[in-house]
Amino acid sequence: MKEKNEYILGTERAELHRLGLQHQVWSGEARRGWEIAEFTEGQTILDLGCGPGYCTKELAYIVGQQGKVIGVDQSKHFIDHLQKGIELDGLENVDLQCVSFDDMELEEQSLDGIYHRWALAWIDNPQYIISRLSEALKPGGVIVSHEYYDWSIFQTEPKLPALNHAIKTAYSSFENSDGEINIGKHLPRMFQEVGLEVISQRTISKVGYNYDLAWQWPKSFLEIYIPKLMESEALDPKQVEDALSELIELEDLPGASICCPLMCEVVAVKA
Fold first, then answer.
1. Residues forming beta bridges with residue 96, ordered by sequence position
2. CB atoms within 10 A of CB 231
3. Where are the alpha helices (DSSP H) in 137-181?
4. What is the C-alpha to C-alpha distance for residues 14 and 31, in angstroms, rounded to an integer?
5. DSSP per residue over 16-37, as a string?
6. Per-residue CA distances from 44 to 2, 82, 138 (Å)
7. 81 in the Ramachandran plot: left (φ > 0), alpha (ψ -120 to 50) or beta?
8. Does any domain span residue 164?
9. Which residues contact 263 (CB under 8 A, 6 or more apart)?
10. Is the peptide bond prior to 158 cis by the omega test (within 30 degrees of 0)?
């Protein structure tokens, strides 16, 4: 059953699996950012847009029983999934809020750290949310952000016509949404405007090759999102069928590759 205000890729079982796969690809990058931020035992950390909680649970082990992780997501499906997971794992240091970012409850100067990944690209008021995050950070608190820097470089080699058209259509759908898909390039300025000091930033690029893990991440995205472009009438059924057929064909081509959207990491501290 579809949720109201559902995430752009949905919240069904297939998306839970895709997000788990995605976390396997990106967990190392997340830990590198957490190390820069010095997330550690006893801290209170917000996982903004926690989804089904792959990062939330890792952070809960990092902060330990003397610390706390707050997970915020507006998807009840994801929050329910995460609640079951933390109960099975015996994690008693996780608080969950099933609300929009506008409605999340954060006390001023209550957080030692914040982590978010692909959270700010989908909202229409990121500067307001960033100002709220800044207010909630303690002096010395750190935010680690992983967002898209340039989605438009997403491409395959070789380029196959129907699949290439579907990828470009996907990008257009994001550009025409209320959010800013490439918000990562704006984060340093946006953080500085609320008094946060950027202490580290880098771009992160990934290229997947036939059947490796980095390939499975964009493949799983395309398998779920291309049919949704038919639902919105951005693509017709034949275009969807051809694109998915070419995705299968691409995987069997020797030397084929997928250049993933360019990501960035921005780490900032509150003075």
1. 71
2. 9
3. 161-175
4. 25
5. HHHHHHHHHHHHHHHHHHHHHH
6. 33, 18, 10
7. alpha
8. yes
9. 29, 146, 147, 148, 149, 184, 203, 204, 205, 206
10. yes
Quickly state the pLDDT bin for 3 (edges 50, 70, 90).
Answer: low
Q: Do 3 and 78 touch, CB atoms closer than 8 A?
A: no
**CA distance from start to end of the chain:** 45
Structure tokens at 35: 């190390």
What is the rounded CA–CA span in Å between residue 103 and residue 97?
9
Amino acid in position 207: V
Q: How many residues does the chain have?
A: 271
Gap between the Cα atoms of 239 and 133, Å rounded = 42
* Residue among 185, 260, 209 at smallest CA distance from 22: 260
Question: What's the domain count of the chain?
Answer: 1
**Residue 103 maps to a domain:** yes
Token readout for 83 is 């609640």
- Whether the predicted model's global pTM rises above the 0.85 cut: yes
- Whether residue 130 is contained in a domain is answered as yes
Per the listing, tokens 């500067």 go with 127
List the CATH number of the domain containing 27: 3.40.50.150
Residue 175 to residue 161: CA distance in whole angstroms: 21
Instruction: Kindly tell me the sign of the dihedral angle through the C-alpha atoms of 219, 254, 246, 167.
Output: positive
- Cβ atoms 97, 105 nearer than 8 A: yes
Residue 4, domain member (yes or no): no
Give the domain range for residue 100. 13-270
Structure tokens at 142: 């750190």
Summarize pLDDT for 214-257 with one digit per residue, the tens.
999 999 999 999 999 999 999 999 999 999 999 999 999 999 99
